[in-house]
Amino acid sequence: MRKGILSIAAAGLMVTGTLAACGDDSGGDSGSGTDTKSAKVGVILPDSASSARWETADRKYLEEAFKAAGVQYDIQNAQGDKTQFQTIAEQMITSGVTVLMIVNLDSGTGKAVLDKAKSQGVATIDYDRLTLGGSAQYYVSFDNVAVGKLQGEGLVKCLTDMNKQKPVVAELNGSQTDNNATLFKEGYDSVLKPKYTAGEYVQGPDQWVPDWDNAQAGTIFEQMLTERSGKIDGVLAANDGLGNAVISVLKKNNLNGKVPVTGQDATVQGLQNILAGDQCMTVYKAIKQEADAAADLAISLAKGERKDTTQTVKDPDGNRDVPSVLLTPKAITKDTVKDVVADGFVTKAELCTGNFATLCTQAGIS
Ligand code: BGC
Fold first, then answer.
1. Structure letter (DSSP) for residue 231
2. pTM for the complete prediction?
3. Residue 330 · residue 283 · CB < 8 Å
4. H/E segment holding residue 119
């Protein structure tokens, strides 16, 4: 299993390596555009509530990558506010960033920001979320349909292990304005729909959660459970935050551990829920690889280079193929939580607190 995680890391490095090999002028600062010293990368993160990842992982790994490359950077968080998102972008452009990297809050405001940057000669990258109809030079993310497939398959495995007959499955999707949420759903529905159609599973309530808002997810799930008189046998929750909101409601109804719930992001909370037996699985995305690949592209753009990527992603709205780096996600269950620790994504100290210490030992986390 440990080998599995390492091979993800290797794949990520390979992609980065391929990028470095294509069109790197190898002269460091002698490229045609701006040199590394005058390069400045602006990054706008979306919020700090929809997932712990943005502040605990993305910010940290991006900072490390920019520092290692000796590039100036400014990383800000829009805290879920679209007006603030645009204000930050304008300030960054005015302050002279040479590259702007965004995680959009929706495609509309994302596009406005990307187009503004472009008109000012600032290069752009879509980080993690593709801006539909946008103009970013690159898109760096994970294979998000694969993320959804892992969630669907993980839920199926847990329902099978628990020997549930004709289980009623509820789906809590992410924000409908996040293209990733659409891709995750495409992935898990490709696993679940055939089961609904075959009558093996019963399709239960299926709802989008505005802005991935965890509190709203709790309310939505509470209503789902009430409507179904408590008869929900499995929950496809699109990330760990939504999963935790569902688990809190299940706890109030003494149903936690009896109804499998999925997640995503391998957050400390999600991993603890897995160790406690309340969450069936999560999806680990090696964000260090994502940050490294994005920083690598940002630095080359700042130098005026145009690196080739091995993949492209079709933007259906803009009808263009966006040069992309898409990394490989990995499913995590109770017996592989230790791999996330071994990979350095979370530490034993933050995961194995209080009552979790014993559960950590049982799960082989040393
Ligand atoms: C990201 C997920 C994250 C979610 C909520 C998605 O676009 O890919 O990792 O959990 O947004 O922030």
1. -
2. 0.91
3. yes
4. helix 107-119
For residue 184, which atom of ligand 1 is closest to its CA?
8
Beta bridge partners of 43: 75, 101
Say how far apart CA 105 and CA 47 lie, in whole Å.
9
74: which DSSP letter? E
Q: For the chain, what is the total number of helices (H) and then of strands (E)?
A: 14, 12
| CA 57 to ligand 1 centroid distance, Å | 12
Q: One-letter amino acid identity for 7?
A: S
Distance 37 CA to ligand 1 centre (A): 32
Q: Ligand 1 mean position to 267 CA, how many Å?
A: 12
Which residue, judged by its Cα, is nearest atom 3 of ligand 1? 51
β-bridge pairing 330-332 and 282-284: antiparallel
Which residues of 70-212 form beta strands (DSSP E)? 72-77, 99-102, 123-127, 138-142, 168-173, 202-208
pLDDT tens sequence across 88-109: 999 999 999 999 999 999 999 9
Give the span between the Cα atoms of 185 and 328, in whole angstroms: 17
Contact (CB, 8 A) for 202 and 169: yes
Those residues whose C-beta lies under 8 Å from the C-beta of residue 252, and which sit 6 or more positions away, are: none
Question: Please, which residues bridge with residue 332 across strands?
Answer: 282
For atom 6 of ligand 1, the residue with the nearest CA is 180
Question: Do 236 and 171 contact (CB within 8 A), yes or no?
Answer: yes
The alpha carbon of 117 and the centre of ligand 1 are apart by a number of angstroms equal to: 24
β-pair type (311-315, 282-284): unpaired
The per-residue b/e assignment along 151-160, b for 16 or more CB within 10 angstroms, e otherwise, is bbbbbbebbe
> 82-94 and 107-119 are packed helices; what angle lies between their axes, rounded to 10 degrees?
10
pLDDT digits (tens, 9 = 90+) for 170-204: 999 999 999 999 999 999 999 999 999 999 999 99
